[in-house]
């Protein structure tokens, strides 16, 4: 576990807490779009959940905001290199779009313009660019753009074409990766200084230190609960073999190709806690550290 003071803006906690400050998030968007007049209409929402139906996959957006022109921004910091980011951005786009019209609205032109921004410390497309901007275009005529109001931007802190983007953007992307005080303090970029001021305040805050620890503990608990749920089906089979099929732990171990010690421990827990669910028994197994 990193200390709060060691986090960079690519670490989710620091990114979310910094972007939760309207002045900081506004400064980031102004740098990305090169527009000092861009103003946020509403404070950013971090960890915003969008779900179209209880049984369908939901999304949790890093940072969601709307500017004075009613354009919607979803800004994501993606530290780990994953191969599904392009289609993930498509899915995010579709779920954001699905929430933009009131029931019964017949005019689809009422939809807000949207921009999905993914900031990464790796080059997703392999062309050495700091910025990749995608809009819908016609295959037969590349000059013909489909003005549907949707933009997806991928930013790469390891770009190699500084002559094609603004110095403010390259400096910000370097700061995202290092979050180095000297870089910000020696910069002529006032927006970067503004962002760094809020980052410094977060890192120096005792309250934020406590919140960071709580977030970390919640993450560990969630991971343990997920592992217990994943093992619950195995516990169900063992329970069935011992209680209903009347096999001994040794017979069950041989049948399921599991360690006898593990089966015996499960059998002991099932007898000791007859009212507990399979998930609860699985959690006890994990806590005991008994190997299958």
UniProtKB/TrEMBL annotation:
InterPro entries given in the database record: RpnA
UniProt-recorded name of the protein: Rpn family recombination-promoting nuclease/putative transposase
Organism: Hominiventricola filiformis
């Amino acid at each position: 576990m990193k200390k709060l003071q060691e986090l960079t803006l690519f670490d989710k906690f620091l990114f979310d807490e910094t972007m939760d400050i309207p002045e900081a998030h506004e400064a980031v968007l102004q740098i990305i779009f090169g527009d000092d007049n861009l103003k946020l209409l509403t404070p950013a929402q971090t960890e915003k959940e969008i779900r179209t139906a209880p049984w369908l996959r939901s999304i949790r957006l890093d940072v969601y905001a709307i500017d004075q022109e009613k354009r919607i921004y979803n800004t994501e910091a993606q530290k780990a290199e994953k191969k599904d980011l392009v289609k993930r951005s498509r899915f995010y786009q579709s779920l954001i779009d699905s929430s933009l019209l009131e029931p019964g609205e017949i005019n689809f032109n009422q939809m807000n313009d949207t921009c999905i921004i993914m900031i990464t410390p790796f080059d997703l497309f392999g062309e050495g660019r700091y910025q990749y901007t995608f809009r819908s275009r016609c295959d037969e005529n590349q000059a013909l753009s489909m003005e549907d109001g949707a933009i997806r931007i991928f930013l790469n802190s390891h770009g190699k074409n500084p002559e094609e983007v603004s110095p403010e953007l390259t400096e910000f992307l370097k700061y995202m990766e290092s979050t180095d005080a000297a870089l910000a303090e020696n910069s002529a970029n006032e927006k970067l200084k503004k962002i760094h001021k809020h980052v410094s305040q977060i890192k120096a805050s005792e309250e934020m230190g406590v919140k960071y620890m709580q977030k970390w503990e919640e993450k560990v608990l969630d991971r343990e609960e997920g592992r217990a749920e994943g093992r619950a089906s195995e516990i169900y089979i063992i329970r069935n073999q011992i209680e209903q099929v009347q096999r001994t732990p040794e017979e069950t171990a041989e049948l399921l190709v599991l360690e006898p010690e593990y089966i015996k421990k499960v059998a002991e827990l099932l007898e000791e806690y007859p009212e507990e669910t399979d998930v609860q028994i699985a959690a006890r197994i994990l806590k005991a550290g008994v190997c299958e």
